[in-house]
Design a protein that fits this description.
With 230 residues, the chain is mostly beta strands. The protein contains 1 helix and 16 strands.
């Protein structure tokens, strides 16, 4: 299957500037207050982001475009972990076991790609659904509590032709978590995993090569990595 090329209209400078704006408005004083954290603040402790009211562990992922891969491949999309006000590599992600994880995925990619129909379904979340807030580029507002994203919808699946990326966690060949991510959106949900070492992968053919499964798709810290749960 030939991959569809993502429309990378957002430069790194704009993306990082937007993330910095989110950080300056949210981290430490309530990220996306009113929606995600019920006005609780975020603090960092030993490299982990936790809520100030000792609530669920917060995992915040950011998908950016126009990341330079190499001279022959050019630019590729990539997942990052937003931690302690910094975008960090997603090659190795660590979360606590047997605890509720609130995951927020901020996606700046406005294109879609080819993906199997099974990955259009939300899998492994506490309520079998995810909340989609559209859209990160234009559908947002600012108030005293920070940035608010409008247009949220609870879904158990999304149209297969409207998926930019997925965050898919596997234990061997078993899919334990699958979150389809729509273009230019924020996805938020919660899950719990047992102790173990898992792999995570974007299942959309958004990389390079004739099938779209080269480049970022096969490189840890881009569209794949390891998830440590302990």
């Amino acid at each position: 299957m030939v991959a569809k090329l993502h429309n990378k209209t957002i430069t790194n400078v704009i993306v990082i500037a937007a993330v910095v704006a989110i950080i300056s408005l949210g981290i430490g004083t309530g990220l996306f207050a009113g929606y995600f954290m019920a006005n609780s603040s975020l603090t960092s402790s030993q490299g982990k982001i936790t809520s100030a009211n000792s609530g669920p562990f917060q995992l915040i992922l950011v998908v950016t475009t126009n990341n330079f891969y190499n001279t022959s491949t050019g630019y590729q999309p990539a997942f990052f972990v937003l931690q302690n006000g910094t975008l960090k590599s997603s090659a190795n992600i660590t979360i606590p076991a047997n605890e509720q994880i609130d995951v927020t995925i901020i996606n700046y990619d406005d294109g879609n790609g080819s993906v199997g129909a099974v990955y259009a379904n939300v899998t492994g979340t506490l309520n079998g659904k995810e909340a989609i807030f559209n859209n990160t580029n234009v559908n947002s507002s600012e108030n005293a509590n920070g940035i608010l994203l409008n247009g949220s919808e609870q879904v158990s699946s999304v149209p297969v032709n409207n998926i930019a990326h997925t965050f898919t966690v596997q234990n061997g060949s078993n899919v334990v978590l699958n979150l389809p991510i729509t273009p230019s959106s924020v996805v938020q949900t919660s899950f719990i995993l047992h102790p173990g070492t898992y792999t995570w992968q974007c299942e959309v053919s958004c990389g390079s090569g004739p099938t779209g499964w080269e480049g970022a798709m096969s490189t840890p810290g881009w569209m794949a990595g390891t998830l440590y749960v302990h």
